[in-house]
Amino acid sequence: MIGMGMTLSADDFLEVLKKPKVVGFGVACQFICMPLAALASSRIFKLPPALALGLILVGTCPGGTASNLVTLISNASVPLSVLMTSTSTILATILTPTLTKLLTTSSINVDGFQLFKSTASVVLLPITLGMVLNKYLPRLSKTISSYTPFTSVILVSLICGSVVASNSSILLTSGLPVILSVLTLHSLGFFLGYFFPSLQGYSKKTCRTISIETGMQNSALAVVLAGSLGVEGAMVPGAVSATVHSCIGSALGGIWRWRDQRKKE
């Protein structure tokens, strides 16, 4: 999150004001389609309450930085992707705990205030710190930012790997429903994220961007937030999600890029 903040400035958020409609539409897709898809998937595959909570957390989290790379691969709009990622991440401070509390079954006690504090500490504070560093130490920030994407990949892999290892018994007993529910969640996100913008007449590049931003969530954030609630097993869907959405997004981006090249030929 500090790395993301070091690539942002106040001017980036002013850009949102220049494109309020498309950014707002895209962020709405993220925070409406994905939470509802998570709720539906958890019920279709009859996930236990703890796993359902983890899946809903994935659905209510903002877009991740991996979406920006997949957007580049897909010949979509990288500037729009960055705007949506940064906007949804800031809004997640309020929306993630609120939506999670609203959608979670009553058999699981979700401490909304604790979730808000965790989201603020994991999202808002480090991004603000990164932006301050970018403003006052721009040369240092630019140097560090060239290494943060790779570092983030390593850190996410370690986080998710440790979750899978420590919850292997849950995966052995409920692994298939978890994988299928996560796969359904992200597939619906990619599909609906393309379908609804296309109905509004947005360009192909814009539809691809919103599709990627909707389908690819910040799964590592979902894992950390689930851990802060202390509900055993709630971190598992986030760990599985990190692999699933990256695979779907990369495959989809490759197909779109291949189709564009075929048309040029």
UniProtKB/TrEMBL annotation:
Annotated localization: Membrane
Keyword Transmembrane helix: yes
InterPro entries associated with the record: BilAc:Na_symport/Acr3, Bilac:Na_transpt, Na+/solute_symporter_sf
Entry's transmembrane regions: 22-45, 51-73, 80-99, 119-137, 149-172, 178-196
Principal location listed in the UniProt entry: membrane
Family the entry assigns: Belongs to the bile acid:sodium symporter (BASS) (TC 2.A.28) family.
Name of this chain's protein: Uncharacterized protein
